[in-house]
Amino acid sequence: MDVPQKNIIPAVEVRDLAIGYGDRIVLEKLNFTIDPGEVVCIMGGSGCGKSTLLKHIIGLYQPLKGDIFIRGESMVNAAGERKKALMRSLGVTYQGGALFGWMSVAENVEFPLREYTELTAAERRERVQEKLALVGLEKFGSFMPAELSGGMCKRAGLARALALEPDLLFFDEPSAGLDPLSSAGLDKLILDLRERTGATIVVVTHELDSVFTIGDRALMLDRERRTLVADGKPAELIKEYAGSWVGDFLSRNGTANR
């Protein structure tokens, strides 16, 4: 006898969302959910609004219309200290790592712990080492960002994003500028993190190798239609949208031009 599943609150839910700048609409009529533990890739051609959507989800921008729910709580309607707390509960990595150049790697990872926790210095050091080990940088805490490779900077940025132990992680173009081996290593790290921590992971990317390696689902945005046009498992979307722009994009067909 099958046991009915309990209702699961989505890690992220986007309802009738419209985003843009002033009178310019970038994306509209967006509706999707992301379940706990999923790795979801947000995809689309250059300029379609991938990174803009991510910045709205994490609370940096207010939408023109609609709502965004994080674990069932509205990011759009949250205000003041509650909104700050909600934003701090998310782990975010930016292109290039976005490390503070005047701080060592360990100091970068420790920064959110000093700002937002009451951990002792010893407890902070232990947490920093734990997160650096998680991303394979346990021997590089004393290094300055300028002494690291691009891939190592991205890993250090990830360690900082993990410092407050979020269960929801966002990556903005994590493989941008990396060589194929470094990119593959980062993909493995993302999957390892999901396995070890159970985190929900949202990745903005245009790297198809990564999408097919790590993505449970792909959300495809269309710049011309200004909305979400496909949502599903990457391999299945190729078959479902064969002969269309979405299928061409996912199969690297040269006729894809959006």
Give a quick precis of the structure.
With about 260 residues, the protein is an alpha/beta fold. Helix content is about 35%, strand content about 25%.
Account of the 3D structure:
With 258 residues, the protein is of the alpha/beta class. It has one domain (12-250): P-loop containing nucleotide triphosphate hydrolases (Rossmann fold). 36% of the residues lie in helices and 23% in strands. It is built from nine helices and ten strands. It is globular.
Outline the secondary-structure elements.
Layout (H helix, E strand, L loop, with lengths): L11 E10 L2 E11 L4 E6 L5 H8 L7 E6 L2 E2 L5 H9 L2 E3 L11 H12 L4 H14 L15 H13 L5 E5 L7 H18 L2 E5 L3 H7 L2 E6 L4 E6 L1 H7 L4 H6 L8
Parallel strand pairs: 3-8, 3-9, 6-7, 7-8
Antiparallel strand pairs: 1-2, 1-4, 4-5, 9-10
Helix pairs in contact: 3-4, 3-5, 4-5, 6-7
Helix content: 25-40%
Number of helical stretches of at least 4 residues = 9
Strand content: 15-25%
Overall domain count: 1
Predict the CATH topology: Rossmann fold
**Oligomeric state:** single chain
Shape: globular
Radius of gyration using CA atoms only: 19 Å
CATH architectural category: 3-Layer(aba) Sandwich
What is the H/E string? EEEHEEHEHHHEHEHEEHH
Q: Which superfamily, in CATH terms, is the homologous superfamily?
A: P-loop containing nucleotide triphosphate hydrolases
Count every beta strand, where a strand is a DSSP E run of 2 or more residues. 10
